[in-house]
Design brief:
Blueprint lengths: L23 E8 L1 H5 L3 H11 L2 E8 L3 H7 L9 H8 L4 E9 L1 H9 L12 H5 L8 E3 L3 H11 L19
Antiparallel strand pairs: 1-3, 1-4, 2-3
The structure holds inosine-5'-diphosphate and magnesium ion (MG).
């Protein structure tokens, strides 16, 4: 697709004990228009922060039709395609990049399944959603998709490499 960033190498923490089989990843998270309109931005950012994930990009933005169609391109032709494009372009979203060990699957498990009606309490969709179309958040579904989606939503210069004070209490 030609959309990948030339992603700078991610610095592994100095002590990587216990990280066997884990990879440090970045994932794209969107707080969808329903989440922003309902005033859930602080709550949702807080959940990822408290989990210990590391924030490297964050902005409030409107999604153009072109961006929406690229982002949801895999669903073109499916019955809900027009509705999902309509919805994601209807009102601003908050786009974020979260970094951490296996952050792609970690965020997916924090979000819960696509249909909030089937999402367990404790997950974002299980705590805040009832409708499959308005399911509050998006999270990349694989590390390779994450790279593509991050490049769709962020310029490289918008991603910030920084070290969190006290980070060793999260990543030993
Ligand atoms: P995901 O967001 O959990 O990765 P996907 O299958 O990638 O789920 O679908 C993308 C988005 O399209 C969903 O989050 C949801 O908003 C919408 N969507 C998926 N399936 C349906 C459906 O059957 N009806 C209406 N909307 C759907
Ligand atoms: Mg998906």
């Amino acid at each position: 697709m030609g959309l990948r960033h030339d992603v700078p190498p991610i610095q592994l923490p100095s002590r990587a004990d216990g990280w066997e089989g884990m990879s440090l990843e970045r994932t794209l998270v969107l707080i969808k228009p329903d989440g922003v309109q309902r005033g859930l931005v602080g709550e949702l950012v807080g959940r990822f922060e408290r989990r210990g994930l590391h924030l490297v990009g964050l902005k409030l933005t409107s999604v153009s039709r072109e961006l929406a169609e690229r982002h949801y391109g895999e669903h073109r032709g499916r019955p809900f395609f027009d509705a999902v494009i309509e919805f994601i372009t209807s009102s601003p979203v908050v786009a974020m990049v979260w970094e951490g060990p296996n952050s792609v699957s970690m965020v997916r498990s924090m979000m819960g399944p696509t249909n909030p009606a089937a999402a367990p309490s404790g997950t974002i969709r299980g705590d805040f959603g009832v409708d499959i179309g308005q399911n509050v958040v998006h999270g990349s579904d694989s590390p390779s998709r994450a790279e593509q989606e991050i490049a769709l939503f962020f310029d490289l210069a918008e991603l910030v490499s920084w070290e969190r004070e006290g980070g060793r209490w999260v990543y030993p």
